Amino acid sequence: MSLLDTVRDAAGRLTGHPEPGAVPDPLIGKPGAIGRSLPRIDGPRKVRGAARFAAEVPADGLLYAAVAYSAIARGRIAFLDTTAAERAPGVVLVMDHRNAPRLKPPALFMTKPQAAGASDLPIMQDDSIHWNGEAVAVVLAHTQEQAEHAAALVRATYEEAPATLDFEAAKRRSRHPDSVMGEKPVLEQGDAERALADAPVSVDLIFRTPRHSHAAIEPHAVTAWWEDGALVLHDATQVLNGVRWTLADMFGIAEDRVRVLSPFVGGGFGGKGSLWSHQVLAAAAAKLAGRPVRLNLSREGVFRLAGGRTPTEQRVALGAREDGTLLSLIHTGCVAMTPHNNCPEQFTFPARHLYRADAIRLEQSVADMDMLANTFMRAPGESVGTFALECALDELAEKLSLDPIELRRRLEPERDPTSGHEFSSRHLLRCFEMGAERFGWHRRAPTPGTRREGEWQIGLGVATATYPYQRMPGGAARIVLNRDGRAVVSMASHEMGMGTATAQSQAAADRLGLPVEDVTFEYGDTSLPAGTIAGGSSQTASIAAAVAAAAAVLATELLKLAGNDSPLAGLGVDEVEMRDGGIGAREQPDRHERYDSILRRAGRDELVADAKAPPPRELKRWSMHSFGAQFCEVRVSAVTGEVRVSRFLGAFDCGRILNPRTAASQFRGGIIMGLGLALTEETQFDPRSGRIMNPSLAEYHVPVHMDVPPIEVVWTEQPDPRAPLGARGIGEIGITGVGAAVANAVYNATGRRIRDLPITPDKLL
Amino acid sequence: MNPVSYVRAADAGAAVAMGAAAGTRYLGGGTNLVDLMRENVEAPSSLVDVCGLSAAIEDTPEGGLLIGGAARNSALAGHPAVRARFPLLSRAILAGASGQIRNMATVGGNILQRTRCTYFYDDAARCNKRAPGAGCDAIDGFNRIHAILGASSACVATHPSDMCVALAALDAEVMLSGPEGERRLPFEAVHRLPDGQPDRDTTLLPGELITAVRLPPLAAARRSAYRKVRDRASYAFALVSLAAAVELDAAGRLAEVRLALGGVAHKPWRARAAEAVLRGQVPDEIRLKEAAAAELAQASPLRDNGFKLVMVERLIVAVLSDLVAGNAGAAA
Fold first, then answer.
1. Across chain A, what does the average pLDDT equal?
2. Does residue A236 sit in helix, strand or coil?
3. Domain FAD-binding PCMH-type spans what residues (chain B) (predicted)?
């Protein structure tokens, strides 16, 4: 991958280990701040209302924006009447394609190292319409209410063009995408279809998952202004540097003329992992008005302008011997996409790495539709892919009269089944053991539909969870060591509520041998060293690798400063470690000097170390994945078909857990989102109009408190020797396997297999 | 939202004096009307806030209750007399919306809340209720939540209230005050079927204000239940709901039976056909299924909502069986 190989291996050079992952991180197994349940550093500010989000940033002369949306899916604006809107009280201007600043189209994500466009459609540059709900005008007014009233007065008539709005019809013209997040869309090992046909036991099943919309508590928002031709954008984003680079490219200005700030994000889940049109529209409107502009999307606006998870139709076919071992594993299917984005929902990824099979066939297709670009949504691919794969495995286990956990035990591979690489660390079966014991798996009735309390049928289900380890290239960190021995560690990274600042303060403290109180972690601002996307569960490792590289540079500089009057004199950087507030010789407890002592003697107020993270070459050498086992108990009403999840347990193998408190919250949050995927969430995309018909939290059903049972989370605590800190990411794995665990539990309760999500009461009558 | 003028009414007379003007709407808790104004579905030019009017909940001489139109849903659901004598009403209210919404919503406003049909809410869709004569995109669209009874070719929307289903079962009366004076309407006569005029949800005359709801005494209400089937455990509108009250004679026959359905029609649906089958009978499963079949004889399901027929039958059988057996309404 061209993205990976551009950055100098700073840490490797300094430590003598050129290959990332070749030697385990020395922090693994070292006692310190890592592993402690520190409360969130950002917590008090959020509780007091002192944390300032993008829609709360004050600005002199601020104008409020509201969006008018298209009512057709494809065609052109025949006539746009903005006169009533312009005359409405408080309106300063109306921007549409006729007066919007001229802009290049956004560079699509993955086409350039920093490209972050969710789509490469031009934004408000002409009269063409590409999806139902696209912005046709932006109204700027003195108050939000005035802007919204005026936006409702914008009148558009359209010349409609034929549009592809029906997934069923679009599927008939499906195609292979160029790549599936860097992987080939077709993978074949042996003749899997033949092996399936010849297998003594087999299942061959179709699964469907619907569209999902993002529903973070904070709707997408920006406050933007221009200063002497430079753009300042306060954003709610997961991809600061990508937003900066892409906006600079669109507006034709140097990258350093754009500053993006995003210190707090009220939930991202992938929905804020791209540059969407609203950020561009706010920056363009601010330029046009010559004043600061706030564009705070309404909930409807989030549904219309920021994409979600695309629908999938998946086939899973498994051919097995009588002992359960697989002769054939087939996972194929199609998702909806557009010609203007590249997000093919990598649902075949779990099947690439989970199970041993003699022959494997994986294939992903996309069906082009005229719709808002779909995007990342917590474990894109793995969330819905594990639903299909893990339900199919449950059906196969039943045919084989095997316990579903026993079947998975028989399929455990020695090496990665498709890459052939050695696993860096894999303890999937331990997850099943831990989970089964704590959850009381032995209480599961092997015959479905046999446990009942009154009208409530009770069932247990299980499924594998999995998500890849990822580390993004391009990150850099800075460490500023002060004269009093404290450190400020900085990187343009993201805090979306998952505990970045807290966990990274702990990690940096251990890296530098400081108490956590003496470390400040700065983030959320592109004026800091470049961060990477907070996505793909990659940010923790990406930051840690950059901070480790900067720490190595710092150590080198400190040894130079220490000079010959120090107990460290004569030591090389490979012979020292950072401990006890300073630098010490390895295995020589007495040879040590504190940072403050070194800096004072050198007459320095501070010492600054910058470094880039080494490229993530560990990904090429090892198969690096997290694993888990999801256990679910449901109660299904025999009267109404209502499903209530009564207990849930997730057992996870994600390497070292940096902060049990924030980690448990992430795991639980993922599981709760998985309950929505399993039982309630579906975006209604009307195939006649391409209109999303339920753009509100009243009608788009995310789980409410009463839908969420007690959720227990446990983990293996096995450090990954190939990952920085020994830790793999944990943000996404929680949602994986949940849909299947619920569906398998519903089957165990009722004897009904539901293969299309969500499992609403009508499907169980 | 359009700019709008706002005034608080001191009493019903003042409210009605102002409320008759064109473009004026009465404002209760605002939990539905304000949403609709923000969605540009409703565009009144002035609002008369009636939250200061009577919110009292009082015994009537004949043993019923008189409920002020401004009583908050939470207050009504939690009132000891309601919980003791009309428990199905309390349960119905608590099955609706969220705690915060119930704290704001008034009884009068709840009665007048409008459908949750998604095509009604979206001004890019065709809707005869929002724009008479425009057509209906729900009939061939997403109509899983729509009506199976009493719909028309112009409209298949349902009434969303839970409270109103209980009021329909209880033979409530609605007290109205308007420019032409005061009158009372039996609850079943308040809401109408869509026919060719789905823009009219109710039979209220222009400027009429709901001042109170009167509940007659009903011994059967002590043995009553409200059960709601929904897509999530809370904060979701009913797919189907059932309010039921029964009184048994010494031989186990139904001396009195009241049934009303929610989520099935343009109005809270008093299931009189089912009641007629059951009254005076021993409500065994066969009889209960007959009752459901009688009620559903005229049902006409749409593409996505045929399951509601099964759900109605299941609810009637389960809820009445539970009531007869002396169990409170089964809930999750």
1. 96
2. coil
3. 1-220
Distance of CA A705 to the CA centre of its chain: 23
**Per-residue confidence band for A18, with pLDDT thresholds at 50, 70 and 90:** low
Q: In 3-state terms, what secondary structure has residue A515? A: coil
Question: How many residues are given for chain B?
Answer: 332
Whether A293 contacts A286, CB under 8 Å? yes
Spell out a b/e string for A151-189, using b for 16 or more CB atoms within 10 Å of the CB, else e.
bbbbebebeeeebbbbbeebbeebeebeebbebebebee
> SS3 sequence, A392-442?
HHHHHHHHCCCCHHHHHHHCCCCCCCCCCCEECCCCHHHHHHHHHHHHCHH
Q: Quick check: do A3-31+472-615 and A378-470+620-764 share a fold? A: yes
Candidates A205, A527, A212; CA nearest to A380 is A212
The C-alpha atoms of residue A404 and residue A412 are separated, in whole angstroms, by 13
Beta strands in chain B (DSSP E): 5-8, 24-27, 46-49, 57-59, 65-68, 173-178, 181-186, 209-215, 224-229, 240-248, 254-262, 269-270
Tokens 């011997």 correspond to: A321
* Min distance A703 CA to chain B CA atoms (Å): 7
Query: A54-162+234-254+261-267+272-292 belongs to which homologous superfamily?
Result: Aldehyde oxidase/xanthine dehydrogenase, a/b hammerhead (3.90.1170.50)
Environment class of A678 (CB within 10 Å of its CB; exposed 0-12, middle 13-18, buried 19+): buried
What topology does CATH give the domain A378-470+620-764?
Answer: Aldehyde Oxidoreductase; domain 4 (3.30.365)
Report the alpha-carbon distance of residue A740 to residue A396 in Å, rounded. Answer: 14
| Two tokens, residue B251 | 């031989």
Specify the DSSP element, H or E, that contains A157. strand A155-160
Give the pLDDT confidence of A297-338 residue by residue, as tens digits.
Answer: 999 999 999 999 999 999 999 999 999 999 999 999 999 999
The whole-angstrom separation of Cα A409 and Cα A431 is 11
Reported as a single tens digit per residue, the pLDDT across A112-157 is: 999 999 999 999 999 999 999 999 999 999 999 999 999 999 999 9
> Which member of B122, B125, B231 has the closest CB to residue A761?
B231
Domain boundaries of chain A, sorted by first residue: 3-31+472-615, 54-162+234-254+261-267+272-292, 378-470+620-764
Going by their DSSP bridges, the two strands A582-585 and A592-594 should be labelled as antiparallel
Residue numbers in B near A742 (CB within 8 A):
none
CA distance B53 to B65: 17
Answer yes or no: do A686 and B144 touch at CB < 8 A: no
Beta-sheet strand order (sheet of A75-81): A128-129, A75-81, A155-160
Tell which residue, B226, B251, B217, has the closest CA to residue B320. Answer: B226
A707 interfacial to chain B (CB closer than 8 Å)? yes
C-alpha B242 chain-centroid distance: 11
Instruction: Please count the residues of chain A.
Output: 765
Q: What is the ipTM of this complex?
A: 0.97
* Interatomic CA distance for residues B21 and A468, integer angstroms: 65
Regarding beta strands B46-49 and B5-8, do their DSSP bridges make them parallel or antiparallel, or are they unpaired? parallel
Question: Looking at the domain A3-31+472-615, which fold is it?
Answer: Aldehyde Oxidoreductase; domain 4 (3.30.365)
CA distance A121 to B26: 46
pLDDT at A8: 37
- Interface with A, mutate which of B34, B100, B118, B158 (most A CBs under 10 A): B118
DSSP character for A55?
A: G
Q: Which residues does A641 contact at the CB level (< 8 Å), separation at least 6?
A: A760, A761, A762, A763, A764, A765, B229, B311
CA distance A680 to chain B (A): 6
Q: Does A71 touch chain B (CB under 8 A)?
A: yes
Q: What is the pTM of this model?
A: 0.97
- Two tokens at A747? 């089957």
- Across the range A521-539, mean pLDDT stands at 97
A642 counts as catalytic = no
